[in-house]
């Protein structure tokens, strides 16, 4: 729902449908949302199109009656065109009207604050936490950076482009970036906020920029550190980083040459390659064609931090069954106008969206 926040806040009323539980295979994960606005307009999605029409009708009803509804949609083999998930899974969808507390939570999320919310219906309680978007720091104001900024924003990152050369680092050249900074990359990286979800992409392939910023990045607990360049450039860069005092263990974290092997050459194609590696590492993918694998398409998040090559070797293994209604997440501060979650204002680390029993 957080992804829809800006549009929802612009509507004077809306009904929003959220996936609160998934069993088996389903196109969208727990937390996916679709909303219907005051004039019947729709944004978001709760499936790959299998049940959208039915959920839309339900949301219109909730919008007019203000009565929340909880519905289950599952596989239907009666006819290929009947309402159901042809992929074989089932999902529960909670539909609710807008409220002052929900609007307050959405506004807090848009303002960059971590928020925990609690929804209830009949004897079930649903909790959700919305964290600020992860940061993508792109160093090097070149054409490739514009493409990386655009696809990074599309993927939900808060994108910053940084370069020490003011003639190149301009807002006009990087309209997709949330911010454009003129500063030496290593100096900016040292002073800006980062965390374990932050991704750093270095595109300058110029030693006077690369070595200081990569030395800084590899000393920090970041999610991803990658650098553009040929294999020869990479080999020379490793020697320079060793000379600069970067430990060998830290160098093993460097993704260079950056990106997956897609065969593309243009800035846009290179950006897709870089984004593919970011997504694979973030969600535990192998980077291999799905048609060549026998493992489940939708996997759990437990393989975070595992090297791509290791995941490729184990791609044929059966994945562990996910816990229904749960996804990986991190707790955040409570919005003052939202009911206290679980009575303590905290979200368990393993529950971005959870299902429970209301305490009477």
UniProtKB/TrEMBL annotation:
Residues covered by the XdhC Rossmann domain: 136-278
Pfam families reported for this sequence: XdhC_C (PF13478), XdhC_CoxI (PF02625)
Domain of life, source organism: Bacteria
Residue ranges, annotated region (Disordered): 291-316
InterPro entries: MoCofactor_Util/Proc, XdhC_CoxI, XdhC_Rossmann_dom
Domain called XdhC- CoxI: residue spans: 13-74
PANTHER family: ALDEHYDE OXIDOREDUCTASE MOLYBDENUM COFACTOR ASSEMBLY PROTEIN, MOLYBDENUM COFACTOR INSERTION CHAPERONE PAOD
Name under which the protein is recorded: XdhC family protein
């Amino acid at each position: 729902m957080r992804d829809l926040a800006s549009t929802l806040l612009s509507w004077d009323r809306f009904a929003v449908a959220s996936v609160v539980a998934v069993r088996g295979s389903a196109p969208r994960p727990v937390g996916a949302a679709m909303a219907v606005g005051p004039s019947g307009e729709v944004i978001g999605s709760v499936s790959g199109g299998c049940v959208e029409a039915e959920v839309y009708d339900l949301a219109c009803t909730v919008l007019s009656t203000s009565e929340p509804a909880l519905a289950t949609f599952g596989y239907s083999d009666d006819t290929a065109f009947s309402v159901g998930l042809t992929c074989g899974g089932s999902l529960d969808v909670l539909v609710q009207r807008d409220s002052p507390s929900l609007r307050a939570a959405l506004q807090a999320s848009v303002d960059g604050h971590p928020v925990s919310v609690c929804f209830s219906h009949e004897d079930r309680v649903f909790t959700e936490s919305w964290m600020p978007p992860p940061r993508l720091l792109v160093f090097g104001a070149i054409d490739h950076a514009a493409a990386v900024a655009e696809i990074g924003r599309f993927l939900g990152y808060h994108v910053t482009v940084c370069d020490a050369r003011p003639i190149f680092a301009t807002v006009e050249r990087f309209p997709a970036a949330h911010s454009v900074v003129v500063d030496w990359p290593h100096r900016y990286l040292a002073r800006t906020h980062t965390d374990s979800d932050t991704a750093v992409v270095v595109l300058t392939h110029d030693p006077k920029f690369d070595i200081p910023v990569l030395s800084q990045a590899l000393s920090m607990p970041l999610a991803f550190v990658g650098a553009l360049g040929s294999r020869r450039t990479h080999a020379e860069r490793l020697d320079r980083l060793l000379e600069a005092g970067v430990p060998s263990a830290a160098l093993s974290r460097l993704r260079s040459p950056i990106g997956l092997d897609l065969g593309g050459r243009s800035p846009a194609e290179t950006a897709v390659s870089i984004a593919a590696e970011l997504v694979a590492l973030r969600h535990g993918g192998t980077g291999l064609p799905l048609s060549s694998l026998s493992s489940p398409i939708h996997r759990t998040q437990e393989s975070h931090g595992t090297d791509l090559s290791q995941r490729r070797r184990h791609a044929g293994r059966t994945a562990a069954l996910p816990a229904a209604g749960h996804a990986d997440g991190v707790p955040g501060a409570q919005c003052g106008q939202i009911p206290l979650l679980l009575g303590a204002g905290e979200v368990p680390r393993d529950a971005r969206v959870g299902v429970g029993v209301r305490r009477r």
